[in-house]
Write a structure and sequence with these properties.
The protein is of the alpha/beta class and 244 residues long. The protein has one domain: Glycoside hydrolase/deacetylase (TIM Barrel). The protein is 40% helix and 17% strand. The protein is built from 8 helices and 10 strands. The chain has helices at 57-69, 80-85, 87-95, 115-134, 154-162, 182-196, 208-223, 234-242; strands spanning 19-23, 30-31, 46-52, 75-78, 99-102, 144-145, 166-168, 172-173, 199-204, 227-233. Strands 1, 3, 4, 5, 8, 9 and 10 form a 7-stranded parallel β-sheet that branches. The longest helix has 20 residues, at 115-134. It is globular and about 45 Å long. The protein starts with 18 loop residues before the first strand and ends with a helix. The relative contact order is 0.23.
Length: 244
Amino acid sequence: MSAANAADCPRSGVLGTSRVLVVDAKKFPNVGLKSFPQTLPLAEKEVVLTFDDGPFPRTTTKVLAALASECVLATFFIIGKSAETYPDIVRKTAAAGHSIGHHTWSHPPLDRIDQAAALKDIDRGIEADELALHDSKNRTSTMFFRFPGFASTPPLLESLKSRRIAVFGADLWASDWNVMSPRQELRLLSSRLDSAGKGIILLHDTKIQTANMLPEFLRYLRTNGYKVVHVVPAEANRSASDEK
């Protein structure tokens, strides 16, 4: 699914994806108000859905099914080790039109290890993700990255910026790393969203409570007038255009 037609949906009466936003790292190198002074140019009641730490068969497949039922596109920041283990889920995610972002090889706290080790883990994760996507580790087609725990450092941010890889933080989250029921998570997330009014939302597709909560949250977005924006990287967008 190309960026041009990613917002199309064959069914009516669902949430859908309202528009596609191309994110170029030259203009938006670091986004997400929880970590950076800048975020994406979203209108009121626009949200970007992002998921971290997958893929994981039991839960990622449930998340994908919930998104498909509402024709919603999201961005998945995947761990290289998991991508190597479950490449079929990575390819299924991309084939459904979702954006893929990198989330390191092994999810270490990158601000607590030396820069050489941090870069090695970042690069190994990128290679594993690209191998899962394209059977080749010698290209970088997905130009998004999120630091584990948002633990960035200025040199690492500069390294990613030099490669035109946009770094995502978040504007709000469901705190789904804490154990809670799907209903509790829905109540927490919806209250935070209503307070913020818009933003990049962080969730984890490895959490069963989130997978179970998601269908109801998507209905909440629909019934309360929120719109989902799908983000795609500028490099991938240009590549799709060049291939036509």
